[in-house]
Amino acid sequence: MFDVQTYVERRNRLKKKLGSGVVLLLGNEESPMNYPDNPFHFRQDSSFLYFFGLDQPGLAGIIDIDQDRETVFGYDFGVDDIVWMGPQPTLANRTEGAGVEFAEPLEGLEKRIGEVICRGRKVHYLPQYRGDNFGKIEKFTGIAYNYVNAYASVPLIKAVVEQRLIKSEAEVVEIEKALDISYEMYQLVLKLAKPGIYEKEIAGAMEGLVLARGSAISFPIILSIHGEVLHGHSHENLMNEGDIFICDSGAESPLHYASDITRTFPVGEKFTEVQKDVYNVVLQAHDEAITMMKPGISFKEVHLHAAKVIAAGMKNLGFMKGNSDDAIAAGAHALFFPHGLGHAMGLDVHDMEGLGEYYVGYNDKVKRSDQFGLAYLRFAKKLEPGHVMTIEPGIYFMPELVQQWKSQDKHTDFINYDKVEAALGFGGIRIEDDVLVTETGHKVLGEPIPKTVEEIESIKN
Ligand SMILES: [Mn+2]
């Protein structure tokens, strides 16, 4: 945990921002895999971690703003539990570390919420994503399961997003701890990738490394010679000479802050000429986007600049044609770069996506586009010091998308379909780093992981 004061201050800020009512923050439960006592790896809810820091299942926190009283509800383990689990700290011991004065048995939570509602006071809760917590909110408030998220507190969402989006120095230190593991992961990938190995052998070794550091992956590893499948989690392919592969992965720091890094490497010692050409377009988009990162610039502007580098580069290589600005305005570049440039990162790898992407990356002034490609941009608003963003442009050759667009005669002024079709089977390229926005500009977090063609090929030789 961070020091006690961190959690006290975070809750004080939240109380001040909301002004009145009762905040209910549910921690997560153990989640069974195939029978109740055989759970998945436990992961605490990120907002609960942020405000209370307590990393055990079966807890809930109440912040009564009007009475200035904070309570953590939970369970005290008896000898019958300790027989199976070993000695456990008491609930009061645990809550003390979070600076919370009151620790009460979980059974009292329903009654407490009931009293608040009976008095006509507001219960603020966040959108839920786990079935058991939907069920709890339904039980405590009487709001039907299917309407639980519709009645989540918008003022609470906005207040939590505002706080969690700006990372303190201590939080950045945590993210860099996760990035230390990422650095080792990519050293391992570079060592293992050779013709004749299966994707799952590398992905498995990476996850083993993460576990051996006492950490957990921050999301399921993406590692595939089919880099054009954006979030593919199958690792069954045999990797051959001449293939390139995308590896998109992350780890968690001890306090559960994420890292998120993507590299694209050749399976053999070298990229082919065309792989190198396309790689350098993505790298240029990545580098120029990072250079633009500073307070006051909108992330949409940075995204559109990366799109422009990609459109111009693909025109240079003969895959696109016509005026690149017009191509971007029309959305033609999205055939190759269909996703957003990046996302906020913190306790969640897609930070606070569960609270609503709109609240994280957009606001009343910055509305989401409905154009294919731009619509997937998770964050468009202005950057501020303390934001941690990923920068992850990519170029992909997606056979189904190419066929669909071609059959619809889509953007024929901007796409050279003959040349694109001849290149199908290329796969995809994505390059991702994690970037902190500072007072004056930006800082790429973590030890540099090989990124240029020369760096990669010199290690692989
Ligand atoms: Mn990412």
What key phrases describe this protein's structure?
461 residues, alpha+beta, Creatine Amidinohydrolase, Chain A, domain 1, five-stranded mixed sheet, three-stranded antiparallel sheet, 39% helix, binds manganese (II) ion
Write the layout of secondary structure elements.
Elements: H1 4-18, E1 22-26, H2 46-52, E2 60-64, E3 69-74, H3 79-85, H4 91-96, E4 102-105, H5 109-118, E5 123-125, H6 131-141, H7 154-165, H8 169-192, H9 199-212, E6 222-224, E7 244-249, E8 261-266, H10 273-292, H11 299-316, H12 324-330, H13 357-361, E9 388-391, E10 394-396, H14 399-407, H15 417-422, E11 428-430, E12 433-437, E13 442-444, H16 453-460
Parallel strand pairs: 1-5, 3-4
Antiparallel strand pairs: 1-2, 2-3, 6-7, 7-8, 9-12, 10-11, 12-13
Helix pairs in contact: 1-7, 8-9, 10-11, 11-12
Structure notes:
The chain has helices spanning 4-18, 46-52, 79-85, 91-96, 109-118, 131-141, 154-165, 169-192, 199-212, 273-292, 299-316, 324-330, 357-361, 399-407, 417-422, 453-460; strands at residues 22-26, 60-64, 69-74, 102-105, 123-125, 222-224, 244-249, 261-266, 388-391, 394-396, 428-430, 433-437, 442-444. It is of the alpha+beta class and 461 residues long. Strands 4-3-2-1-5 form a five-stranded mixed β-sheet. It has a three-stranded antiparallel β-sheet with strand order 6-7-8, with helices on one face. The longest helix is centred in the middle third of the chain and has 24 residues, at 169-192. The protein is globular. The chain binds manganese (II) ion.
